[in-house]
Protein: Phenylacetaldehyde dehydrogenase
Organism: Pseudomonas putida NBRC 14164
Amino acid sequence: MSDITLLPAVTAFLAREHGVFIHGQHLASQSSSNIAVVNPANGQTIAHIADANQAEVDHAVSSSRQGFTAWSHTSPAARAAVLFKLADLLEANREELAQLETLQSGKLIGISRAFEVEQAAHFLRYYAGWATKITGQTITPSLPSFAGERYSAFTLREPIGVVVGIVPWNFATMIAIWKLASALTTGCSIILKPSEFTPLTLLRIAELATEAGLPAGALNVLTGGGLVGKALIEHAGTDKVSFTGSVPTGIAVGQAAMGAKLTRATLELGGKNAVAFLPDVATDKAVDGIIEAGFLHSGQICAAGERFYVHRSRIDPLLDALSQRLGQLKIGSPLDEATQFGPVANKPHQQKLAELFAIARAEGSQIIHGGTLGDGPGCFVEPTVILARSASDTLLTQETFGPVATFLPYDDEDELLHLINASPYGLSASLWTNDLGKAMRMIPQIQAGTLWVNMHTLLDPAVPFGGIKASGIGREFGSAFIDDFTELKSVMIRY
Ligand code: TXE
């Protein structure tokens, strides 16, 4: 097999001079610096993007304030209609967006099509449906009447204002869609700051949003590094930040938000997610589960499994079977539809994984499979299986965010629960067993924002998602996001 042919629209988009997208149009950047966008599959520079300057930050915020006024006064039904139209346009431009996404992130083309575009459109339609269903409450005040007067009260859910959406590189398109959909369906405007590694699809989606009927300023896109994000959060004209990314950056974002002006913050961070197999799970089913939990998109998923706990009686055959399966994966170009395992997303990330492998070796962890980088300019990392010596090994405590599954055997359920919970993080976990009664008894004892049973990683727009402990603040999806993107106004009436 070989690479698919790039669409003419993709090559034409890459050849453009990329600026910033403010008030419904692309503007040539006034910034003196730009950033190269590199294809991680082959190390080639595919485009340059603007590293937005303070004047562009100011311009985007002032446009978003106007956009907020216009958009928050449209009817809920009109807002829903625009978002439904945008979902249609994502699908109509599926191949172009998927190819751009694969070129910028190294994601397998099939995953770009299925998740970054089709799933993103599905999430967008789910959020669009909420525009017409945001409600307050009526309340009967409880105070006694002093002189026969009566009271009535109700609450309103009002859009919070101008949102700053800061997007990571792992699902650059889909996560941006979650953020813009949450903001726009509640009546907020949003400025999206994509990762400097993966900015291209958002610049294209901004055009599609205008085509869908979004008024100027409701969505702006500013490209650049972390300082652009920081400047937006601290700007007097922004009201909320919705951040997805690493724990250290998330803490810095939270501090900047609180320190500046109590800017509201939703933080969806990473973690060190546990995957626990009870002894009754068949080896082949466990291998499927490990691949689903730890190796989808090379493990570059915030909810991916990283700590794998297997009963001591089952671990040897399981590691043998897993190594055999990983050895059969076809590693190669993400634009080749036959490839099953592509590169990681960028050079710094590949280097970080190399350093973690060196630490694992130095600590005496056993590398059962992989543990090396690929040759050549691409950011390839072998799928890796590690057997730790103890729960305190670095590979069992530090997020790899890569194609690395680290295992530790356990002897009984009490020990298993202790191991699962002995982490400062709590984004997700999964429990694998044929004994549903046992699972139901363990569920309340596991500390995680999302707990899957006999599955891992699948996100659904109707099911709230977010972390406990150091994995974040706030929830996306379901109705939970409404609390984060609106303010609650109480109204009391005397009559
Ligand atoms: O993420 P960052 P990076 C992990 C993964 C990876 C590591 C670093 O382990 O190796 O993080 O990746 C913007 N104020 N995850 O550096 O720093 C930045 O420009 C405001 C896990 O890419 O978290 C980008 O748009 N914004 C993760 C976004 O924050 C700032 C997904 C994310 O960058 C900023 C990605 C600042 N001070 C990486 N500094 C997950 N859990 O989903 C940076 N940014």
